[in-house]
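User: I'm preparing a small set of examples for a lab meeting where we compare how different chains pack in three dimensions. I only have the primary sequence for this one, and I'd like the structure in token form so I can line it up with the others. Please keep the answer compact; I'll paste it straight into my notes.
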Amino acid sequence: MNELTTEKTMTIKEVAEALGVSYDTINNCIKRIMPNKLKHGKTTYLTEIEVSAISKELKNNSSVLAHQTVEVTSTVKNTTTDLEILNNAMVALADLKRLYDRKEAEYKATIETQQMKIAEDAPKVDFYDRVTESADCIDIGQCAKILNVKNIGRNKLFEILRNKKILNEHNQPYQKYVDCGYFRIIETSFNLPDGTQKINLKTVVFQRGVDFIRKMIEGQKK
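Assistant: Understood. Below is the structure token output for the 222-residue chain.
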């Protein structure tokens, strides 16, 4: 306190200690609200009214600072939220990319498997196409050509079918193979040189019979 005056006064240092702030804070506050108070090289004494004004100014500035702090905090919080959203989006995109890559790999594997299956079935498809293109039934010679097995022609096929007890010694199918719908015996007629007409019994093969013979021959190879 200034002991040379009857009015109670306080120095800047005393005010700073009383208000719990720094010397510079009080000094700057005086410059703002009472710039003529400060005198270079002289101790500044503040009256109760002046100290009250300084205190009030500091409180107002404190409210402004607090408001600014809230705004800054809110901005930081919003920025953090935006970063979290962006990060979550990037994680989701990465997951989506992994899912896409896995599905693409599965699709390619499926296509490759299907292509291999088509390649494996190609001979069978060709076989059935050739049989389907044929008439309702074909003779043994035509059957041998359709089967297209090396070293198995008409006569060899007759021999195999006889050895398997599918045809008898007259190259006619046993009844059970007729009943299965594999073979059929048809009558054909032809004329001798003397004009006599003869009837011949001919064994023909149905489409399912051709498939039966093919499976039998493939079974022999194993």
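A couple of notes for your slides: Strands lie at 9-11, 45-47, 137-139, 183-191, 197-206. The first strand starts at residue 9 and ends at 11.

User: Perfect, thanks.
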